Amino acid sequence: MAEIGDFEEVFSFNPNYTYDQSAVRQIVTHRKELGNKLFLDRLFEAVGIEQGPRLYPPKTNNDLRTLFQKISASPAPLHYRQSILYYLLQDSDEAASEAYATTTFLPEQFRLYTAGLWLLDQLDFDQALLYLTKPHLTPTFQEEILSTLLTHCSSSNPHLPLAYMHAVLPSLTTPSALDLVFRTHLLTSLPTAYGFTRTQNAALHRSFFEQLVTRTLEQPRGEARASACAMLVNLPFDEEEEWWFEEFLTEGSGRGLVGARDAVAMRRLGMGKYREAVGTRGLSGVSVDGVGWDVIKEGVERGLGSR
Fold this sequence. Notes:
The protein is an all-alpha fold. It has helices at residues 7-10, 21-33, 39-46, 52-55, 61-73, 78-92, 94-103, 108-121, 125-132, 142-153, 159-168, 175-188, 190-197, 202-217, 223-233, 239-250, 260-270, 274-278, 293-304. Helix 6 (78-92) packs antiparallel against helix 7 and helix 13 (190-197) runs antiparallel to helix 14 (202-217).
């Protein structure tokens, strides 16, 4: 069987097959969790099956047959249509899906990628990446996949989006894709994210730089934020970045961030600009182990003396 095959052939394990109610509910739930769009929905779009998202999940055997007919009638290339049927068979019977891939000579790259997308729709992100990061695959939906991983894995397993990003990095070139790359770097390494900002054109460089500052200062108070802020104010800014940093936190949209003025003062201290540091206005009254800005200012002024 080198073509699509008819319904009885494809679902020969049970031509009367119907998705049970729990499976339908799970698919609907997963679609909502994925922003109301499964990766299967994107496959439907790719092959021009506009009714696909409405027909899936099929609630009856007749619904399944209708969806099958829409797939068969699509003018899309054969392997694309076979891939969608392979996906549907993954829902029902894994052995049947592999048998279908074999009898239709579905190329390995289509089988692997479709299996990866099916696992994404199951919210099984770890297993999905085992398929989607194979070196011989041509990336598809890479921005959407990276965005999904950032949304669902940033807290639980931040290394997953990082692993996927590195696998598909050469294909991530649009401004929206570069924003995803930046956010992925920021999950695991502030210095790496900073280094990435410096590889961009002037407009993106400043935009990412300001995001870097914003995301650092927006972290909830605690040791992690304190460590990130200390790292931020000690990054090797060039002259232009130095100006961006001060302008953003004293006059720009970042001036309302918690600790904005404190960050400016700390940067000035670190750069040896002691007079400017102690003259920074609007510093917080927060102290650490009894040491606040009043104590620091007094110490700096004593050290400077009459200079």
